[in-house]
Amino acid sequence: MLERRQYKLGKYDIVAQPAPGSMHMLRYTVLLNGKRLGALLSAPTESDCRFLEAPPKVPPLKIFSVTYRPGRPKKDAARPGGDGESGPVIP
Question: DSSP letter string over 56-72?
Fold first, then answer.
């Protein structure tokens, strides 16, 4: 069975220990100044550690109804959200 081992990668401390439920895989826990940043199942690079420390900004989600624009409206269709006077007049 594998043992726990610890090493340093730049300014990050990496603790490799057996992954739960596995005899041959290791879980690599990334620490910075004693604070846990995250864990990976593959050996991390310094770039991975920087990503865990400061992940990139993710833009907010757009609502589907705002982004969904069906095909072109018919020629005589009333404008959506209008006062209704721009549509065809039915006697």
Answer: PP-PPPPPHHHH---SP
24-37 burial string, b = 16+ CB within 10 Å, else e? eebbbbbbeeeeeb
Hey, what are 70's tokens? Answer: 């069906």
Q: Are 48 and 38 in contact (CB under 8 A)?
A: no
Amino acid at 3: E
Of the candidates 24, 54, 27, the one whose C-alpha atom is nearest the C-alpha of residue 40 is 27
11: closest CA among 57, 42, 54?
54
Question: Which tens digits make up the pLDDT trace of 32-64?
Answer: 999 999 999 999 999 999 999 999 999 888 777
Question: CB under 8 Å to 65, separation ≥6 — which residues?
Answer: none
pTM above 0.90, yes or no: no
